[in-house]
């Protein structure tokens, strides 16, 4: 049995109200779309995964799914129904026997719900995850007056994934091409295909508004554990006309001495990230005895630490760097430093803090002999993959 999944991500998110479509908004450090795709890519019963995207979202999609094992995306249509049909057509010739169709805006779908939706296809040609209504349902024809009250015992709230035998749903979509139905189960119903109800999951939240995104953040927080790492580094002044601090060259009458570019801020931050999951320190991974590292840009070290953290199942929540020096004057360069760190780590600027302070002429920094830096990194790990 070859089971494919289509993730429908061709919407522009008019109701969401964010700066970008909701499927590309960040949710706990990852794009919403990436989380939705990952649930199926990592499922043992799913053979193929493909996204259906808007024609103008190619660049955003490529960035969101970097490194994932996916079929190339297909461009959607003018409606959700047309987008699903185009996605289904793109699977022709791949030997697909069953297909799951899932909304990109449901990033919290569980492996168990995916499995139950597939199980139902053993006895049915179509299945839909759904939750029984818990509120009393009122029907109004004009939006002002209640027309009638429905028996909530007969009402279910449909979710995705929705599962189908591939040929069945393909034929149903072809027959309903001129209609405007709201989900694929309705397309199957229109063709007279019985649709099996699968117990849904109340946590399988659909992100429609910014408040939904915030709720999803809170829900993910309960499934994760925070780890904090700290780092500290010192470099003395040497020959030069600039000092490299947090990736930015700051003019000065000296440089910083070191085996690499002596970026004291990025060195401290690298140690902080490594420390959050017990991965040693910068010297463990990049020893000063390695001549190939002489003069190396310290962004390489920081990116390496961030990649190791991601491989360990961590997401970067926040980093905070404090530069300790009497000279040079650092504060004008702080915005550029924050942006540089955010770019290296691939996180939003709001997750990066850089500060500078002096020692009031006390100690080596106060005597203008060098610069120190301390850093704190907060990482979040899913409870199932703690190091």
Describe it for me?
The structure is a single chain. This protein has 387 residues and is α/β, with parallel strands linked by helices. The chain folds into two domains: 3-221, Spore Coat Polysaccharide Biosynthesis Protein SpsA, Chain A, CATH 3.90.550.10; 225-385, 2-Layer Sandwich (60s Ribosomal Protein L30, Chain: A). It has twelve helices and 18 strands. The protein has helices at residues 32-41, 58-64, 80-90, 111-119, 166-175, 184-190, 210-221, 264-276, 282-285, 299-311, 334-345, 363-366, and strands spanning 3-9, 26-27, 30-31, 48-53, 74-75, 98-103, 126-132, 137-139, 148-150, 156-165, 196-199, 224-238, 242-245, 248-251, 255-256, 314-324, 352-357, 370-382. The strands form five sheets. It has a seven-stranded mixed sheet with strand order 5-4-1-6-10-7-11, sandwiched between helices. A hairpin with a 2-residue loop joins strand 13 and strand 14 (248-251). The two termini are 35 Å apart. The model has no long low-confidence stretch (mean pLDDT 93).
